[in-house]
Amino acid sequence: xxxxxxxxxxxxxxxxxxxxxxxxxxxxxxxxxxxxxxxxxxxxxxxxxxxxxxxxxxxxxxxxxxxxxxxxxxxxxxxxxxxxxxxxxxxxxxxxxxxxxxxxxxxxxxxxxxxxxxxxxxxxxxxxxxxxxxxxxxxxxxxxxxxxxxxxxxxxxxxxxxxxxxxxxxxxxxxxxxxxxxxxxxxxxxxxxxxxxxxxxxxxxxxxxxxxxxxxxxxxxxxxxxxxxxxxxxxxxxxxxxxxxxxxxxxxxxxxxxxxxxxxxxxxxxxxxxxxxxxxxxxxxxxxxxxxxxxxxxxxxxxxxxxx
Amino acid sequence: xxxxxxxxxxxxxxxxxxxxxxxxxxxxxxxxxxxxxxxxxxxxxxxxxxxxxxxxxxxxxxxxxxxxxxxxxxxxxxxxxxxxxxxxxxxxxxxxxxxxxxxxxxxxxxxxxxxxxxxxxxxxxxxxxxxxxxxxxxxxxxxxxxxxxxxxxxxxxxxxxxxxxxxxxxxxxxxxxxxxxxxxxxxxxxxxxxxxxxxxxxxxxxxxxxxxxxxxxxxxxxxxxxxxxxxxxxxxxxxxxxxxxxxxxxxxxxxxxxxxxxxxxxxxxxxxxxxxxxxxxxxxxxxxxxxxxxxxxxxxxxxxxxxxxxxxxxxxxxxxxxxxxxxxxxxxxx
Amino acid sequence: xxxxxxxxxxxxxxxxxxxxxxxxxxxxxxxxxxxxxxxxxxxxxxxxxxxxxxxxxxxxxxxxxxxxxxxxxxxxxxxxxxxxxxxxxxxxxxxxxxxxxxxxxxxxxxxxxxxxxxxxxxxxxxxxxxxxxxxxxxxxxxxxxxxxxxxxxxxxxxxxxxxxxxxxxxxxxxxxxxxxxxxxxxxxxxxxxxxxxxxxxxxxxxxxxxxxxxxxxxxxxxxxxxxxxxxxxxxxxxxxxxxxxxxxxxxxxxxxxxxxxxxxxxxxxxxxxxxxxxxxxxxxxxxxxxxxxxxxxxxxxxxxxxxxxxxxxxxxxxxxxxxxxxxxx
Lengths: 308, 334, 329
Hints:
CATH topology of chain B: Rossmann fold
Structural class of chain B: alpha/beta
CATH class of chain B: Alpha Beta
Strand content of chain B: 15-25%
Distance between the termini of chain B: 27 Å
Number of helices of chain A: 11
Largest sheet of chain A: none
Order of helices and strands of chain B: HEEEHEEHEHHHEHEHEEHHEE
Helix content of chain A: 55-70%
Number of helices of chain B: 10
Strand order of the largest sheet of chain B: 6-7-8-3-9-10-12-11
Oligomer: heterotrimer
Number of strands of chain B: 12
Radius of gyration of chain B: 21 Å
CATH topology of chain A: MetI-like fold
CATH superfamily of chain B: P-loop containing nucleotide triphosphate hydrolases
Strand content of chain A: under 5%
Shape of chain B: globular
Radius of gyration of chain A: 25 Å
Structural class of chain A: mainly alpha
């Protein structure tokens, strides 16, 4: 029989702990099989709020702006003095808090959607370009990111409100400016490690141009991370919106937003606490739910982001 | 090899290739601390339809050399010629023509395929890119037909074009990578450790497949490997590198019959271990490969060489022909 | 110390079953593994990825990965005691002192934020028996033992300041600091360059000659087996299909899988024709056949191979194979 020689040994980057490959194929899209329990309660709360926002005109019992002054400051229905007509009570102008809450969800979600699309989108693009192109482009973009982090965001938003005037546009611009840098930083880190993967070098060998590689090879591979960032930032946006509205730099009254509702109830917290507390509870529930959902999504899609 | 092919002009010629990476400190006013001489004056030829094996341990410069041939890095000095045309500095049309003729398969099947792209799309990519360069979207049906043909050629089923990489085993992924490399009908494929991440039995399948394809398509291979047995089975010519330099270069059969350079001998004795009780001339090297940042003077191997002589540390040995086609860079053979 | 040649059994594994319990089903990664290891011996455990060789090692250390892996059956006798019945506290005593392990990747085996000295000292202090020698000196001695040049300087360095081969030596020094009777080496040289690999294997051999420890050497590389091992066990789909002295396995492999595997390895001598290959894929560990696990890829398959798993047949001195078609001796 022929002499048996030493076969070539496996390289350091070859799959380690081979068994894992079998039960748990690494690097598959949507990776990670060991999922934590699906967060049904947060999902239910988020769905309820989304439905509220979408079908506000159908769901709200009253108009959110019409004032009924003789019904002002009624407590919620289950309390002494409460009226069955206003389940969550009324505010100082006699407007139904439930209806305002339902319409307010619209504004909150609209702002979240727009700000995350704009800010997240810019951050995604900047992160991909900085990470893939590297060199001077990377240095310049990352210094911009650093600069964005040093910005006093609230102050800047107030400034914007003064110069551009209050409104949805101002609010979205301010919040986007707050968001893009953190997106860019995380995405860039992700791209830096992706760029080392062989399939990127092979795409170059096959003749793909840099924009093509960024679009077809890099972008699809950071979308998981991007989605996780989006969910984790919904809470940030809702709170920012509430803060700015509370400070008077948000959507001008009488359009209901949750932040504005708290602001309006602030002066009467002693005798009519529900006016401020109920939208406060709504914000807390919403932010808590999206964060729990985001945590779960992150564990499921991108366990590497756990330190965020 | 017949004298005929020997004299023919090479497909790829590497001339005096050097790659030095500057090691710098600081960002804005960077200070150069030194140069890593990853590849230092390397020359060889690859003829059409033949396999050249490039052997050495990590840090010897074999991967850097292959990346320069793939036009992923620019050389610091020296030239690479494909069919007599220099390949660096190519732009636009000429570059994509070059890309179509020189392709690659890399080592790690888990990293070689975009996990978010159907394998059919990966295989078709070079065709799609070329078609869009030529002001057209390419004939979909024609591309699909070529993808089917390629999948069959590498031993996969045509319907697997619709699957994602995670549905494939390591060996199958390497076949997909090979199919993608073959798509543009290249003249040369750089195989960077194409089988070392695979299991023993899968390795043999892949090596047979590579040989079959070479016989069918007359494609040349540059096989970068650290395993001598693989090189012996695949390569017509073998180049052994140590710390950025070629130390020995010969037709594979002649090299394996008559190893000359002490470093190559050490590599061989590190491999010749399988047979229990087999008596082989054994050289166990002392120490580790020195840093390429500050390579030893004279012959770079002198710090570990069992046959070191006083002048080895002073003069650098040149490659010398010791028998027809067999070149060695060592003072022992002067 | 001189190596004991009396062949006293130090580790005996009997009918070991370690399965992964996943939502989608049970992965029978280790499914009836038996072998024994004698003092001063090197047993090679060879197989392809996913055959269960690494999980066998982790089962012996009782360091199963999280996520549903459990040893559900079998015995692991270390010096007459079934360590599968030990408490976690007892296991901590056993690990390092009685049985120790070296893993493939030295990069991840060492903690990057502590110096080599800190990590060695931790191992020494924890495993220390009464001894008057200061810990630092002992750590330097441990490094000298694994032939690291200038150990006094190296001891203050961090892992990233060392090469792969050097790190793997440090890992080895830590592993043997408690003078274990059994060392499990799980592909310790796979990440190393060939010339460095040779150095490491020779070092392991020398250390073994000094201490007389038994080594379970896990690898997929027949070259390493030939160099290192006295006996070799070939694993396929969760079971050992053939076990025998290295010389016998190389010269006269009995199981068709072993034969095919050895034939598919590119050789350094002989003709350079087509390599033999094994067609097909190993069976899914979630859905193992009732019969022989290699039957679907075997060139000599018969009906009885599909109907029932062949027993372990003794085919020679210390040589067994799980195959219907081998001749018992």
